[in-house]
Design goal:
Number of strands: 2
Number of helices: 9
Largest sheet: 2 strands, antiparallel
Mean pLDDT: 82
Structural class: mainly alpha
Oligomer: single chain
Low-confidence stretches: none
Order of helices and strands: EHHEHHHHHHH
Radius of gyration: 18 Å
Distance between the termini: 34 Å
Length: 169
């Protein structure tokens, strides 16, 4: 792995985008359930993280408009609301849902709907580590039910919520 040519020695580097965040979440899951052959998977995920490193200058290529940053905040603030839709976030920030989806994907590397699912799973992970009951967690986290929580969490982290709690609580 060679750092970007624009990176100077000692310059801060950042991870950004769906590739980096997804790899980090999957790395947690693989580490938690580590089995024979997972060393190769972990190596691949670690290389995905290294490839996602950007310099601060790289981050300024396509600056996000203020409304997009606000949409990102709103999306994360309201992720626990059951039935939260991209159209609702778009309405709050005053843009069309298609414009929001297009710019969100270009700037953040994933759809707003995927960001909502990831925000919910991340909050669920924090609550799991504090010992919150799964049924209560599903209700608090905006999931339809406990099986919905289990499916979404497993897809994002690669572990069931119960296994995650056993490893990290």
């Amino acid at each position: 792995f060679d750092p970007p040519k624009s990176a100077g020695r000692g310059d801060p580097m950042r991870l950004r985008g769906a590739l980096a965040e997804g790899a980090a979440r999957r790395l947690i899951g693989v580490a938690g359930r580590f089995a024979a052959g997972d060393a190769v998977v972990m190596e691949g995920l670690t290389l995905d993280l290294a490839a996602a490193v950007l310099t601060p200058g790289d981050l300024n290529e396509d600056p996000a408009p203020e409304w997009l940053l606000r949409a990102h905040e709103v999306l994360h603030d309201l992720a626990d609301q059951p039935g939260l839709e991209v159209a609702t976030v778009a309405r709050i920030v005053g843009v069309h849902a298609v414009s929001l989806a297009r710019r969100y994907r270009r700037h953040f590397g994933r759809s707003p709907a995927a960001a909502i699912r990831q925000a919910r799973a991340d909050r669920a992970a924090g609550r799991l580590a504090r010992g919150v009951d799964l049924a209560e967690l599903a209700a608090l986290g905006g999931y339809a039910d406990q099986s919905h929580l289990t499916r979404e969490f497993g897809h994002i982290y690669g572990l069931t919520p119960g296994r995650y709690r056993a490893l990290f609580a």
